[in-house]
Amino acid sequence: MTMLEIKGFGKSFTIHHLNKTIPAVSPMDLTVEAGEFVGIVGKSGSGKSTILKSIYRTYLPYSGEIHYHSAQLGKIDLTQATERQMLYLRKNEIGYVSQFLNVMPRTTCRQLVQNALLEMGESKESAKSEAEAALKHFEMDPELWDSYPKTFSGGEKLRLNIAMATVKKPRLLLLDEPTASLDHQSKIKVREMIEKLKSQGTTLVGIFHDIEFMEGLCDKVFDMKDGKIALPLEGVVHEG
C-alpha cells in the first residue's frame, strides 16, 4: 500500500518587502510505501526541511499534491485538508521530530510525554507507564523528569522531542535531523527506536547529514541538490 504520494510538489518563499521570490523546491514526485523508511540527504538550504514541513502542513506548496493514506480519513490531499483534519492527523497519525523543542511553558518533561499519549485517549496509568519507559530508553536522567525543559541542554531537548513523537507510535513519522546534537550513545538509542517502530509498521521519512547513521537503515535514500530531488543513492540502504 502506498502511504504517501507526492505529485508535482513545488515550493517557493516570497520576501514581500524586497518584492522577491526565492525558489525552495522545484516540482517533484515522490512515493513512499507503507512501512518504508525513505531518507533524504543534501546540503543546508537544498530544500530538505521544506519537504517535511509541507507534509506536516507547516508550509503550503505553490503547486502539486501530497496524498496521505489515513487510517481514519482515507486517502487525503494534505495540501487541501482542513485545519481540523490536520489537527486530528498530527495528534493521532503523523509525528514530527524537529531539531528544536517548542513546548508549553511550565510543563515538565514527564508531563510532556504523558500528554502526547493522553491526547490520543490513553488512560492516565498507561500514559504514565509508557512515558517513563520512553524517558528511560532515551536515558533521560530521572532527576530531570519533573523539571522544565527550558533548563535542558540541546541534546536533552532533542531526546525529549524524539520521545514525545515516538511514544505515540505514529503511522507516519517525519524526522528532521533527529541526531543533530546527540552523542554517539544517544544516536544508538534513536536508531534502536527507529528500528523498533519500523518493525511495527511505522512509515518514516527523514532528512540527515549523518550518512553513517543511515547506513543499512533506510530502504531508499534520495539526494537533494538546488531544490531538486535526485535518483536514490546506492550503498546506504537497508538490504533485505
TrEMBL record:
Residues 4-237 form the ABC transporter domain. GO terms for molecular function: ATP binding; ATP hydrolysis activity; transmembrane transporter activity. Transmembrane segments: none annotated. GO terms for cellular component: plasma membrane. PANTHER family: ABC TRANSPORTER, ATP-BINDING PROTEIN, IMPORT ATP-BINDING PROTEIN. Keywords: ATP-binding, Nucleotide-binding. Coiled coil: none annotated. InterPro entries: AAA+_ATPase, ABC_transporter-like_ATP-bd, ABC_transpr_LolD-like, CP_lyase_PhnL, P-loop_NTPase. The keyword Nucleotide-binding applies. Signal peptide: none annotated. This is Alpha-D-ribose 1-methylphosphonate 5-triphosphate synthase subunit PhnL. Pfam families: ABC_tran (PF00005).
